Amino acid sequence: MIVRKGVSLFFLSYLLIVFQCDCFSQRKGKVDLPTIAIVTTGGTIAEKKDPETGSLIPIVSGYDLVQAVPGISDLAKIKIFEFSNIDSSRMTPDIWKNLSKKVDVILKDTEIDGAIVTHGTDTMEVGAYFLDLTVQSEKPVVFVGAMKDASSFSPDGPENIYNALVQITSKQAHCFGVTVTLNQYIHSPRDVRKTETTNIQTFDSGKKGCLGYIAAGMVHCFRKRFCSQKFFLPKTLKDVSLIKTFAGDNGSLVRYAADSDVKGIVIEGVGAGNVNEEVYKAILYALEKDIFVVLTTAVFDGAVYPLYGGNGGGYELQQRGVIFAGDLPSEKARILLMLALAQDNSSSETIAKCFEM
Ligand code: ASP
Fold it and tell me: Which of 44, 202, 296, 297 is flagged as catalytic?
């Protein structure tokens, strides 16, 4: 069914009903192949051009996605779980919470050896990070997507799914946990960033580099993941704001957030972790209200440090109780703070510890 109105599209396509299809698992003579779950959530990989408007719409089913991958049944038996079909701009922490729960339930099945999650690339790094922090299973989970839709001249989705299967069925790559794997590169969700809006080589792990590379049906491992921590999924997630500061910022956004019902604010500062004096005063206002304030930087590579003095300098911010997020990007610092705040007995110390990892 093609639904053309954006809003109804969202509600119709966000179905938490799991459709399971064994149709790719029945090949003769392939009994020893591993069984891999493909959990579909949407994104460009599941979109095609609407012939009337030319805009992209989510109409590719899990079955279609799998059928578009040549040779898939030589690698694994596939079970499809249709979780949702939404653009990843519509993802929320609560949806990721349900996805994480679903993936863990799927991976509890002893017959299933790993899961591929198809997801829009716009927020993939954040969703994958959420699952990296919360999926309890040690089986591999690989996030894949596509930069080109299924009706384009050369869709990248099928090859990305194929490579994800190569990775997941390779023993070498099992220590990677949850990964973001696109265009042959395997990335740690914590470190990877989307860097291009339309190019297939969009994901980049900066100076830390990717975990590995997939070529000619083989996985080449480059490095281990640097850190991993796990949280139990809370019943509810606390609200956390994310505010980017800018030249001439008068702090009003921080004050507004502090006056609303948030439990935490992530401040994306500049450089090595600084804000101007007005924002500094607004941060003190938030801290006085017992709101946890976490500092990140707008800079692509590198961490925040208590280096600079003066009102708004990193040193002074840390003295006043601001938690430093290291090199964790702002959107992920927000997810980490939400999860850390939802754990029993969370305090400044326990939360600060989470950001040290
Ligand atoms: N807008 C799409 C999404 O994130 C982009 C993509 O999937 O590449 O859902």
Answer: 44
Give the architecture-level CATH label for domain 6-221: 3-Layer(aba) Sandwich (3.40)
Report if pTM > 0.85: yes
pLDDT at 61: 97
Q: What's the CATH number of domain 240-356, 3.40.50.620, 3.40.50.40, 3.30.950.10, 3.30.70.1170?
A: 3.40.50.40
Q: Residue 346's pLDDT is what? A: 82
Phi and psi at residue 356, in whole multiples of 5°?
A: -85, -15
Q: Residue ranges of the domains in the chain?
A: 6-221, 240-356
Q: What is the DSSP letter of 357?
A: -
Counting ligand 1 atoms within 8 A of each CB, the residue from 83, 89, 92 with the most, and so the one to mutate, is 89
Please list every protein residue whose CB sits less than 6 Å from any atom of ligand 1: 43-44, 87-89, 120-122, 145, 147
